[in-house]
Amino acid sequence: MQEEKKPLREALNLRIDDRLAKEIARIAAANGKSASEVARRLLGYGVEVERRLEAQKLMQHYDEEYGDNIAGRIRIQAEFVPYTWKEAAEIKEDLESRGEYSRRPTWDDIVP
User: Fold this and answer.
1) Torsion of CA 43, 45, 47, 53, to 10 degrees
2) At how many degrees (to 10) do helices 35-59 and 18-31 cross?
3) Staple 20 to which of 16, 34, 51, 84, CB 3.0 to 4.6 Å?
4) pLDDT of residue 38
5) What is the pLDDT of residues 38-93, one digit of tens each?
6) Secondary structure (H, E, C), 57-81
């Protein structure tokens, strides 16, 4: 059974350096995916990081606000966390309500 894919509506052309292109190609080959699929997933991760940084900034007290001239770094921590039975049930319910339960969930359903 072939999985249905969400239709993609937008295109974004960007230039990347050779090192990044090689790393995307390496990840794609290791996962049996196309470079475009991997790049979309990685870009989604980056968007999530940016959202969290924006949220962090909005939650700061105005006295503790970091100006643009404050030096710092972004610390990213990643780990695989299996879904709980409750989360799996919520995903199943959401897919059923959208009529998409005729196929198995994929990472494209989960990753922003």
Assistant:
1) -140
2) 110
3) 16
4) 95
5) 999 999 999 999 998 888 888 877 766 677 777 888 888 888 888 888 988 888 88
6) HHHCCHHHCCCCCCCCCCCCCCCCC
Q: What is the per-residue DSSP string for 18-37?
A: HHHHHHHHHHHHHHT--HHH
- Please state the pTM of the whole predicted model: 0.60
Alpha carbon 82 to chain centroid, angstroms:
16
Residue entry with tokens 């990840």: 27
HSE-CB for 83 with a 13 A CA cutoff: 11
- Name the residue with higher pLDDT: 5 or 49: 49
| Residues whose CB is less than 8 angstroms from the CB of residue 4 and which lie 6 or more positions away in sequence, other chains included | 103
Residue 32 region by backbone torsions, left for phi larger than 0, else alpha for psi between -120 and 50, else beta: left
